[in-house]
Amino acid sequence: MRITAIQLAYDDEESLADRTDRVAGMVRAEAGADLVVLPELWSAGGFSYRDWPDRSQDVRGPVVAALAAAARDAGLWLHGGSIAEHPASGETGPEGKSLWNTSVLLGPDGSLAATYRKIHRFGFAGGEPKLMEAGDEVVVADAAGVRMGLSTCYDLRFPELYREQVDRGATAFVIPAAWPQARVDAWRLLLRARAVEDQCLVVGCNTAGTHAGTPMGGHSAVVAATGEVLAEAGSDEEVLRVDVDPASVAEFRDAFPVLRDRRL
After folding, report:
1. Which site among 87, 154, 175, 187 is 20 to 30 Å from 162 CA-CA?
2. pTM for the predicted model, two decimal places
């Protein structure tokens, strides 16, 4: 199984249209991969809070449509990172907001295979909690030969989410992020922690560059179920490619059956 994490760098000058075209081209260039993963909120800007309403779209809007076309052209599974979702239906959540941080998983035929609304919103009293609704559904999907648990960035700090995904059969966690450079050590540690404690393959795709005055952390990584880092990017824009054997997760769980000893 060939996994590609596109650690995208962007700044405040690049237009949404230009960025979307650039990303779609990068996805098409990965023809031959089984799974390509993009970062969180790359189209809206991970820390560009003021731009989220203007750059928000429905999950069937032009950004996802461009990604779907690229996935279809390249014949691969594409985790499109996440968008600032504003449903065309006018849906609002329990807090009266109409904006979500929503991940999209697209099939090799361009179909929308799964969506995930970020459960844990970062920003404490500001940022996501102020502007966005929280998701309330744990999502696990079969894609690219693995049972894939979906989560986003700040979710990584909440291990109970990943335990629930394991209970639903997950063998891999895919985690797009806009994790800043100031806390990148925690990002690197937690990717390995989630792999070790849940005996899952982990694919973490972070953002590079600087936008909204915030330097991003990079260091996207693919981590084996053993905790071994199979590949890790640096801090700049980079396309990370790694071949993994999906069967290695079950083999390691059988050889070292930690999960069978759970009491809680």
Report:
1. 87
2. 0.98
Cβ atoms < 10 Å from Cβ of 253: 17
Please give the residue range of the domain that contains residue 83.
2-261
- 201 forms beta bridges with 172
**CATH number of the domain within which 248 lies:** 3.60.110.10
What is the gyration radius of the CA atoms in the chain, in angstroms? 17
CA 255 distance to own-chain centroid: 29
Domain count, the chain: 1
Tens digits of pLDDT across the chain (264 residues): 999 999 999 999 999 999 999 999 999 999 999 999 999 999 999 999 999 999 999 999 999 999 999 999 999 999 999 999 999 999 999 999 999 999 999 999 999 999 999 999 999 878 899 999 999 999 999 999 999 999 999 999 999 999 999 999 999 999 999 999 999 999 999 999 999 999 999 999 999 999 999 999 999 999 999 999 999 999 999 999 999 999 999 999 999 999 999 998
Which residues face 176 on adjacent strands? 205
Cross-strand pairs, 175 = 204
| Cβ neighbours around 26 below 10 Å, total | 17
Length of the chain: 264
